[in-house]
Amino acid sequence: MWGASSLIGAVTGDDEVDFGAPAPATAAAPATAAAVSDGPCSPGEGDQSSGEGVIAALEHRYYLLRDGVAVRELMATDAPLPDAATIQLGIDSVPLGTTHCLEVTAIGPNTYSAQITEIRPDRRNEFKQRITTTTGPDGRVMIRSIEEVRG
Fold first, then answer.
1. Which of 9, 25, 67, 73 is deepest in the core (most CB within 10 A)?
2. How far apart are the C-alpha atoms of 135 and 151, rounded to whole Å?
3. For the whole prediction, is pTM greater than 0.85?
4. Dist CA 1 CA 112 (whole Å)
5. Using the 8-state DSSP alphabet, how is residue 37 labeled?
6. Would you place residue 151 in the very low, low, confident or very high pLDDT band (cuts 50, 70, 90)?
7. What pairs with residue 112 in β-bridges?
8. Is the distance from CB of 1 to CB of 47 less than 8 angstroms?
9. All domains of the chain, ordered by start, with CATH?
10. Buried-exposed string 97-132: b where 16+ CB fall within 10 A, e elsewhere
């Protein structure tokens, strides 16, 4: 979710998530039966009542539902993030059977550090992101931005 979407995918040099790019590889490690998306490293389906909840929902919809429209619905309409079709391209580039782990930490008002560990059938990828949220007039928390954290 974002250990934690790519949360979602690779991040481009201009700090915007590129949902269509293949994820960067890190040290290869075999997936284990304990590393499942509904296991202890996944916060479940998430919700839109908090920043942590909406980030968990984003990762759940990306890795388990594999639905670009559902992912985009969690983002503010004016957020400078990809459209649903582009998100779907990124989802489709992730092999079936990929699981993820997510760690989210509040680092400021409406600002979170997310670490996503993506466990593909053939390798592991790790992503660190700074995610900001906003609350809409209806009280639902939405994703406002996703930036890569390097180093």
1. 9
2. 30
3. no
4. 11
5. T
6. confident
7. 106, 131
8. no
9. 10-148 (3.10.450.50)
10. ebbbbbbbeeeeeeebbbbbbbbbeebbbbbbbbbb
